[in-house]
Amino acid sequence: AGGGMAGSAARLLVAALLGALPAAAERELRFRPPAEAPVRLFTEPELARYDGQQEGQPIYLAVKGVVFDVTSGKEFYGKGAPYNALVGKDSTRGVAKMSLDPADLTHDITGLTEEELKSLDDIFNNVYKAKYPIVGYTSRRILNEDGSPNLDFKPEDQPHFNIKDEF
Q: Which residues form the Cytochrome b5 heme-binding domain (predicted)?
């Protein structure tokens, strides 16, 4: 085995470093995205793959063009769960209207009332942004209609984000 000593020394160092972290610090590290996390762009077919039908696959839901990983809420969003209809797509309108009607499971917010728009913002900030990690954005949010980059795009910040333990 070439360089056996160096290899095992490196493994020991890694083990020592990992062992030195208390569990809470390790959790901190795991959930803190890198300062400049690359922005992942989701097309509709890509997002559709995360619809909760595959056991062991993450479950994603987009609201206002922001893609959240809602896997930790799989009793709500998983296969056969009450809000499964919302996942794998941008369901902004459905969230605003608190509707699971297939016609409302769209990004389109045309014609929503003041009240529905306020409700949308409340749920977006106090449920999704507070509870679920952002994994990317829909192409509609990042790109213009013609496919060129939207220069006004700004990633959402999650300053008050904390993984709430549901269990």
A: 42-139
